[in-house]
Amino acid sequence: MKFEAPVAVTEIAAYIGAELVGNSQLMATGINEIHKVTPGDISFVDFEKYYNASLQSAATIIIINKKVDCPEGKALLVLDDPFSAYVKLVKRFRPFEPATKAISDSAVIGEGTVIQPNVFIGNHVRIGSNCVIHPNVTIYDHCIIGNNVVIHAGTVLGADAFYFKKRAEREVMYDKLLSCGRVIIEDDVELGAGCTIDKGVSGDTIIGRGTKLDNMIHVGHGTVIGKNVLIAAQVGIAGKAHIEDNVILWGQVGVNKDLTIGKGAVVLAQSGVPGNLEAGKVYFGTPSEEARNRKKEITWIKRIPEIWEKVKDLK
Amino acid sequence: MKFEAPVAVTEIAAYIGAELVGNSQLMATGINEIHKVTPGDISFVDFEKYYNASLQSAATIIIINKKVDCPEGKALLVLDDPFSAYVKLVKRFRPFEPATKAISDSAVIGEGTVIQPNVFIGNHVRIGSNCVIHPNVTIYDHCIIGNNVVIHAGTVLGADAFYFKKRAEREVMYDKLLSCGRVIIEDDVELGAGCTIDKGVSGDTIIGRGTKLDNMIHVGHGTVIGKNVLIAAQVGIAGKAHIEDNVILWGQVGVNKDLTIGKGAVVLAQSGVPGNLEAGKVYFGTPSEEARNRKKEITWIKRIPEIWEKVKDLK
Amino acid sequence: MKFEAPVAVTEIAAYIGAELVGNSQLMATGINEIHKVTPGDISFVDFEKYYNASLQSAATIIIINKKVDCPEGKALLVLDDPFSAYVKLVKRFRPFEPATKAISDSAVIGEGTVIQPNVFIGNHVRIGSNCVIHPNVTIYDHCIIGNNVVIHAGTVLGADAFYFKKRAEREVMYDKLLSCGRVIIEDDVELGAGCTIDKGVSGDTIIGRGTKLDNMIHVGHGTVIGKNVLIAAQVGIAGKAHIEDNVILWGQVGVNKDLTIGKGAVVLAQSGVPGNLEAGKVYFGTPSEEARNRKKEITWIKRIPEIWEKVKDLK
After folding, report:
1. Weakly modelled stretches of chain A, pLDDT under 70
2. Distances (CA, A) of C213 to B38, C184, C208, C230, C260
3. Band (C75; pLDDT cuts 50, 70, 90)
């Protein structure tokens, strides 16, 4: 997420109550996750094992819970609870703006686009030309939709990431990381009915040009789906997955977070994908493996009684 | 379900056309299912094998299809079709009240709660303070929502239980048990987009304090979910399940009805839970078993060809 | 799909720019898929291996990409791209009509039917008597709903078929086949919350009398579900499946396209059905097989370590 205008790091430090270490002349240009940061961004880290990755990332300003050596040209904002400081920044720079009407005056809608009744379009939404948005669709604030996009009824774009920090000592144990990312739907995408595409935590959830989703598909926060991808009904994709171009996911497939499904891979129905899949291959099963291997396994399982007949009298 | 005021058992008997056996001075205070009844409640039973459980339950008034001995201090309402008599009572004491507007005048909404556009809030709904109800949410009559609750777009609270009696002799075979229970969402709960939480048949469906649901989660009638439970996207939980505190259900898990998942248990993605699970353990597979055992099985399956090589020449 | 009035085949030929071969006096009465065509219908074929089936079907007019012998009394419309010609006809004869209000003036709604707030009812919809349509339901144009039907909140009837032709040479690779079929819900059906029932490509998607669906069920284009069928939550059924009377599908089952599940068959939870199932049997697993066989397999898998103990010292 980028700020509307750069903010002095000193102002950030004062706002969250952090000790500023390093370059105090810096201007922050946005907030982002460690794997998506660009120069000017603020990021946060609260686990020692991620300190190095954070400090060496492109982030210019790092909110951190230990006073470590500050890399040249960067700034550290040191305090006890970086997570809460981050949430405080999101609340300030991307505050929730309750709607005053069903289609926000700040939304920009292109020529030839049809908005059917009972649609909600939030603040700062941009929709391209020649789209059809069917009834009862919800488009949260800041979503961006390209041209020639069709969104079927009841679909929801931009709900919050499902992302919580466990605070075992609290009565309400799960502490929510407020999301400030967006949903971006590129040109010529079709989304079926009853889908939910969550916004990114601080980066964007993206559905690439020409990709087609059937009904009731869940796409988690920050997931990036390539071009000309085909996804059948009731597929669920967790957060920060990367689905490359031309992939096909058949019905009810489940995809874990933080993985890559390579270009042109095909995942057969009801499979569960726990980790990366190579490009161009066909997968099946939970956990998924190459379909030809999984099918051999199914055949082997049916031969266990035959094996038993051969060995049952052995001592 | 409790009546607004007690009703004489003689009035109930006359209304449903039952023979009254036992104490005719009783006042009925509500209607409930056999495993949730409290003194004063009416319950019904139409299978001989459940007679004893019903007669010995806390229910004070039992609608029954056979004239059996009436326990001391109770009343039996004897007629041929207890199911239909029960449905008749639900229609009378919890009638469907068509809405006259999108947000009922009888709904009570707390301070600081934001209701976004296109939300439906039914009759007698109560919503606490500092909640956010996102667009296109539907809250059926009689739902109760606590404080600091977030409900994302398109979610539906309080639709009818999926509960039918099979009447094989009829052209329309499935006879619906009308639901009169409620949905209760406790404080600090977050519900993702596109979830459906059904009302109880006569008891309540409850989601405990601090519990967080991702998108497209189905919770069946009368299910009780504890505190600080985490449920990932596309999980389905059938009716009358009991999910204890601190349980984690990962994506696309399916949970059968009438079972208990013990405190802190974790069920890995796409697993199917057919029966009770012990507290504190990790489960995987369909049917689910302890994850470490299931993973060993997966390894063993891959060794069948090796076993075959050893035995193929045996006679 | 039937036209409002017959159209001369010569007019069709001119409109799509095809060479007319055969009987030029014919009148076209509608458009349909090869397995549903009736005399008077236009169908299309663009794969040589389906030529014979098309030419010998009941279709009277065939759009085809090769000039072959025309069967007696029929007409061929020959052009390079039958798929695009078909889409052009759908656009002309079943054009998308943007709504001017949430409940179309052209919709016909029967006596005693309750329409709750925030419902969308499209053009030319017909709804019978004594139905309840709960909030935030979307009913696309041309859907037909019988009497005594209950549709719970958020359900979507009549979204487009998920049906694309792959054009590998194009930048936007998937070319959409516009749907012109309908959704037909017969009497006494109940649909749970958050379901999506797609329209047929050119035929109809039908849910038979007395059938009951739980929440979040997906029914694909052109699927025909019989009478008194029971479908539990989160089941997904692909296009053109045929689910016969009295079938029961438990939760999260997935059903492939173009298959038949025989009368009274039962499919246990989370199963995946790849092909036809026989009537009256119980099935389980992915891929589904008879439940008793699948349960034996699960037992055999647990015995592999025992077999290994017997053979591990064999050479």
Report:
1. none
2. 32, 14, 11, 6, 18
3. very high
- Interface check for C238 against chain A (CB to CB < 8 A): the answer is yes
Residue that is written with structure tokens 């499946």 in the block: C241
C113 interface with B at CB cutoff 8 Å: no
Question: Residues B98-152: pLDDT tens digits?
Answer: 999 999 999 999 999 999 999 999 999 999 999 999 999 999 999 999 999 999 9
Q: Is the pLDDT of residue C110 over 80?
A: yes
- Residue A309, chain B, CB below 8 Å: the answer is no
**ipTM topping 0.90:** yes
pLDDT in tens, C47-61: 999 999 999 999 999
| Residues near A243 by beta carbon (within 8 Å), at least 6 away in sequence | A223, A224, A225, A226, A229, A237, A249, A255, A260, A261
Chain B residues within 8 A of C305 when measuring between CB atoms: 300
Q: Which CATH class is domain C2-93?
A: alpha beta
Contact C270 B256 (CB under 8 A): no
Q: Which residue of C has its CA nearest to A213?
A: C162
Please count the residues of chain C.
315
Helix (H, G, I), strand (E, B) or coil at C76: strand
Alpha carbon distance A117, C101 (integer Å) = 6
pLDDT of A119: 98
List chain B residues with CB under 8 Å of C152: 156, 159-160
SS3 category, B257 = coil
Asked whether the CA dihedral B230, B233, B236, B239 is positive or negative, the reply is: positive
Domain spans, chain B: 2-93, 108-295
Nearest by CB to A152, from C159, C272, C304: name it: C159
Are A223 and A56 spatial neighbours (Cβ–Cβ below 8 Å)? no
Measured between beta carbons, which residues in chain B are less than 8 angstroms from residue C150?
A: 160
Q: Does the beta-carbon distance from A153 to C120 stay under 8 Å?
A: yes
Which pair of structure tokens corresponds to residue B128? Answer: 């606490």
Asked if domains C2-93 and C108-295 share a fold, the reply is no
Residue reference for tokens 């604030």: A141
CB A29 within 8 A of CB A10: no
Cβ of C116 and B136 within 8 Å?
no
CATH of domain B108-295: 2.160.10.10
